[in-house]
Every structure is written in C-alpha cells, then in structure tokens.
Amino acid sequence: MSEKDIFVLGIETSCDETAAAIVKNGREIVANVVASQMESHQRFGGVVPEIASRHHVEQITLVLEETMKQANMDVSEIDAIAVTEGPGLVGALLIGVNAAKALAFAHRIPLVGVHHIAGHIYANQLVQDMKFPLLALVVSGGHTELIYMKEHGVFEVIGETRDDAAGEAYDKVARALQLPYPGGPHIDRLAKQGKPTIDLPRAWLEEGSYDFSFSGLKSAVINTLHNAKQRGETILPEDMAASFQTSVVEVLVGKTIQAAAHYDVKQILLAGGVAANEGLRTQLQKQVEQLPEVELVIPPLSLCTDNAAMIAAAGTVLFQQGKRATMALNANPSLLL
C-alpha cells in the first residue's frame, strides 16, 4: 500500500436499500449507512420497482450526508467514488449512478463503476485478506453463482442458476407457507424447529456441472403442500421448512466443495444475502473442515445484505488498477461479471 491512505466513497442502490459508505484502503470501514425500505415492500410480498426508485430519490442525499458526518470527513478528502452500475432494477440503479456522477463532476473526483456481485465478493475483504486462487459462492435473491478468482478483479463464473436463484426459491416457498416477506430469515428460523422428514428433490444436474436449479424443488414444495391439503392431511410448516432448507443447502455446499477440490483453491468465500442463512453457514463450515488446506471466510450479517461498504471495497481495487468511468456511465440492469 502506498504511503497515502486511499478513501473511497461507495454508493449502492441496486434494489431496495439506499446505501453509502466510506472505506479506507479497501479494507477498513470508516462509515457505513443503509436506509432499508423493507417495510414499504412487505405488504406487497416483494420489491415493487417503482416504489423502490421513489424511496431512493428521497433517501440518497440524506444517506450521503449522514455518511460524511459519520466519517467526519469532507468530500475533498475522498479519492474516488465507486457506484453500483448493475445488475439490478434499472430505475433504482439510475438514482445511485446519477448521484455518483453529480458528486464526481462537481468535486472533480475519479468515478468507478462496480458490478453488484463483485461487491458482494469483496465484502469478505473487509473481514480477511483474499488468498488466490479462491472460490466465491454467491447466494442472494437474484443470484446463485460459483465464481473462481485467480487474482484481484478477475472473475470466472464456473456455475450459475439455470432458473430460480436460491433466495427467490426461499421467498416463493415462504409465500406458500404463508410466512412474511422476505422469506429467507423466516424459513431459516422455522427450519431449526422442524425435522427434514419430507422427501424433496435435489437437482445435481449432469456430471461435472457446477450449475444450480431450484425451480423443481420450489414446485415440489408447492405440490406437496397442495396435495396434502386436498387429502385433508397436515404438514407441519417447520418440517417443510427444514426439508426445503436441507435440500437447498446440500446442493449449494456439495457443489462448492466439489469445485473447491477441483480448482485447488486456498479460500472459499461466502457472499450475498442468503449468506446470512444459519443453516448454510453451519453446513459449509462443517464441510470445509474436511479440506485442511482451505480457509473459509464468511462476512458478518451486516455485510451479507446489500450495503455500500462492499461496493467501496471492490471499487478500491478497480481504482488502484487504474480503471475509471466517464460521465457516460449508465445503469446496466443486466451487466455481466
């Protein structure tokens, strides 16, 4: 690291969290502010893009001001501004991108566009230094991916979901069990009280594939509940939650361990909103213990869900690599890693 500390302001508005953070040297959080909209979307049972965008418009200035205040810094002390350019909801992304461009233009600060998933992976660097080659398991509402990294900023997607992301399956199964949105935490909590007694499918796909598929599992849960109801039988919600979670976790962990051995990695990183799932964390820890040479890094719960510290951490690496965005930077809802 050069003698001068690098301070990067991160901005994240890809879905329903308006977030800003300042990170020092890509590793140390100076300030981290997140304004959640969960309550607004709860009554709709999911995120409503139009409502999300309006909330970002209302919150972005306040969140940025609060971040600078927490850090006790002036904008002139910021070395770069990193912003999520995609993927995500286009209207939501635009608010963050335009706020970042306005600040960068007004204060003549370099601007860096960050991929949302790269951010989730780099949340781990706020906990522990990355050791290459590594494997990241990214599990969230919109993504389920296995990503191999040989060095900083280079991502190779070796496995991804062919249909529903794991988090999406959690939300849909939660709805079938009449649990509130977001479903993940509720199923995780309920699963601890039940037993995985219901036989549900596990999609391993073809030999040697690291891809995932959760659509069939979700349908199997819905059909099992529906058939039981028609026959007048009762299925305990906690047993269904435990059975569903066991099926998801077994495949996620199984494929991750297979890939880690095949690619001979030094580290496994867990990333994304579903990384907060206790069942997944516990199982992954157990299995990684069988690989003595591999270190497992799991970020704290506050860094699993969307936040801007992770965007600033990923942005610092890009900034140090000399990557810059111009004022033509735009929101890209389907940005590839």
From TrEMBL:
<comment type="function">
    <text>Required for the formation of a threonylcarbamoyl group on adenosine at position 37 (t(6)A37) in tRNAs that read codons beginning with adenine. Is involved in the transfer of the threonylcarbamoyl moiety of threonylcarbamoyl-AMP (TC-AMP) to the N6 group of A37, together with TsaE and TsaB. TsaD likely plays a direct catalytic role in this reaction.</text>
</comment>
<keyword id="KW-0479">Metal-binding</keyword>
<dbReference type="InterPro" id="IPR000905">
    <property type="entry name" value="Gcp-like_dom"/>
</dbReference>
<keyword id="KW-0012">Acyltransferase</keyword>
<feature type="binding site">
    <location>
        <position position="188"/>
    </location>
    <ligand>
        <name>substrate</name>
    </ligand>
</feature>
<dbReference type="GO" id="GO:0005506">
    <property type="term" value="F:iron ion binding"/>
</dbReference>
<keyword id="KW-0808">Transferase</keyword>
<dbReference type="GO" id="GO:0061711">
    <property type="term" value="F:tRNA N(6)-L-threonylcarbamoyladenine synthase activity"/>
</dbReference>
<feature type="binding site">
    <location>
        <position position="184"/>
    </location>
    <ligand>
        <name>substrate</name>
    </ligand>
</feature>
<feature type="binding site">
    <location>
        <position position="306"/>
    </location>
    <ligand>
        <name>Fe cation</name>
    </ligand>
</feature>
<keyword id="KW-0819">tRNA processing</keyword>
<keyword id="KW-0963">Cytoplasm</keyword>
<feature type="binding site">
    <location>
        <position position="120"/>
    </location>
    <ligand>
        <name>Fe cation</name>
    </ligand>
</feature>
<feature type="binding site">
    <location>
        <position position="277"/>
    </location>
    <ligand>
        <name>substrate</name>
    </ligand>
</feature>
<dbReference type="InterPro" id="IPR043129">
    <property type="entry name" value="ATPase_NBD"/>
</dbReference>
<dbReference type="GO" id="GO:0002949">
    <property type="term" value="P:tRNA threonylcarbamoyladenosine modification"/>
</dbReference>
<keyword id="KW-0408">Iron</keyword>
<feature type="domain" description="Gcp-like">
    <location>
        <begin position="28"/>
        <end position="312"/>
    </location>
</feature>
<feature type="binding site">
    <location>
        <position position="116"/>
    </location>
    <ligand>
        <name>Fe cation</name>
    </ligand>
</feature>
<dbReference type="GO" id="GO:0005737">
    <property type="term" value="C:cytoplasm"/>
</dbReference>
<dbReference type="Pfam" id="PF00814">
    <property type="entry name" value="TsaD"/>
</dbReference>
<comment type="similarity">
    <text>Belongs to the KAE1 / TsaD family.</text>
</comment>
<dbReference type="InterPro" id="IPR022450">
    <property type="entry name" value="TsaD"/>
</dbReference>
<dbReference type="InterPro" id="IPR017860">
    <property type="entry name" value="Peptidase_M22_CS"/>
</dbReference>
<dbReference type="InterPro" id="IPR017861">
    <property type="entry name" value="KAE1/TsaD"/>
</dbReference>
<feature type="binding site">
    <location>
        <begin position="138"/>
        <end position="142"/>
    </location>
    <ligand>
        <name>substrate</name>
    </ligand>
</feature>
<feature type="binding site">
    <location>
        <position position="171"/>
    </location>
    <ligand>
        <name>substrate</name>
    </ligand>
</feature>
<protein>
    <recommendedName>
        <fullName>tRNA N6-adenosine threonylcarbamoyltransferase</fullName>
        <ecNumber>2.3.1.234</ecNumber>
    </recommendedName>
</protein>
